[in-house]
Amino acid sequence: xxxxxxxxxxxxxxxxxxxxxxxxxxxxxxxxxxxxxxxxxxxxxxxxxxxxxxxxxxxxxxxxxxxxxxxxxxxxxxxxxxxxxxxxxxxxxxxxxxxxxxxxxxxxxxxxxxxxxxxxxxxxxxxxxxxxxxxxxxxxxxxxxxxxxxxxxxxxxxxxxxxxxxxxxxxxxxxxxxxxxxxxxxxxxxxxxxxxxxxxxxxxxxxxxxxxxxxxxxxxxxxxxxxxxxxxxxxxxxxxxxxxxxxxxxxxxxxxxxxxxxxxxxxxxxxxxxxxxxxxxxxxxxxxxxxxxxxxxxxxxxxxxxxxxxxxxxxxxxxxxxxxxxxxxxxxxxxxxxxxxxxxxxxxxxxxxxxxxxxxxxxxxxxxxxxxxxxxxxxxxxxxxxxxxxxxxxxxxxxxxxxxxxxxxxxxxxxxxxxxxxxxxxxxxxxxxxxxxxxxxxxxxxxxxxxxxxxxxxxxxxxxxxxxxxxxxxxxxxxxxxxxxxxxxxxxxxxxxxxxxxxxxxxxxxxxxxxxxxxxxxxxxxxxxxxxxxxxxxxxxx
Length: 542
Prior knowledge:
The chain is an alpha+beta fold and 542 residues long.
């Protein structure tokens, strides 16, 4: 009889061990299901409030706001325009790990597990409300998602609670093997929760798409006006059409995008408004999109550059823009530049996503083609590039000039207000530095010996490029042939025919701008006002 009891106890212990492991795995799954419920419900509520109020977007935005410049530059350098996708995937991965852990916690402490879910909801709510464009209602998606998730977790954890089962011996209760649980009840509850969450998520997506349909339709139906001041035809020799060389005009799909928006704002042009106010504004203005279309329209070729562009980097592009002169609007509002006695020296442009960009009033009003752009390369602005209206100021890095999705212009002073990036250790003012890049041959390419075209682009917006030079292995500088110049606000292509010989070689390039100043060879990083140095490429000639 004792041997039978021992066998029974061993079997019960084995069953208990297997059941504990199963319960632990299902507890982690419970946390994941609860997390899925939270995100789905939050997305549904965010569709009603506004898509940017979703917890992943809100937390991601808060992370971006607090990211040191060096880390931000690392992300842009390594992930390019995919940096936001990487951030969102990272947030989702961390949420999944925390959700699984909270599920394990709820297995032993149901109330504590549910409370932990509510804490995460509070984090999302605080992040949403604390964003520059945040409003109290932005807390609702995170709060609603957390409450539903806490209830779901409490329910599923209850289905995993151990239930004693009869021991094979004489109908006694085996206290060491209290490991069975309501498997069927768990499967039913988990399936129902997952299905309901999927339905809520799909409904949220549909509602969001419906809300954004008006913006998409307003862009689709927009016919850009014929410019009153058209851009001159691009000179026939401006594009050298060399294999591997960037095209003179950058297609919209290839144009770089660097901003902090995890969700691209989709603004209906019919509802868009721009407010101009602040110091020295004698006649505050508020205009709509149709008001802009009725003004004098200009068309210009302008190269934009991001301050995060490292030496030889890709964050530069050239496009044909159409819009209205910003200086004309400022004058209509009674604004005078500081050189003419105006009290404001800074324009603070505000975007619908809360971004603030500070631009010198003097620069905008000095006669250059600073504009509020409506179109890009013959079509309405893509949403990713600021539809319906964005700001462009030739000669300044984007972080101090290129406000996308603009909704407000406030006149103030640099002493009174620090814009978004200035608060994060970047300079208040940042004219674009003279830079050049080798596009071909590529790094570590193996061109054949003989004549090899070394070609690339150089830029010094609003000063122009007057000379480009190339050298090999630290030797003497050789003058490259410049493509025809379009305007001083665009980049310029160049090529040098290199008589390549066998071996490993280092190619370097430098440019001289229209004022006669030659690009410095001193290597400096992007912070605080743009990188400097000569771009170099190492190649192996067989």
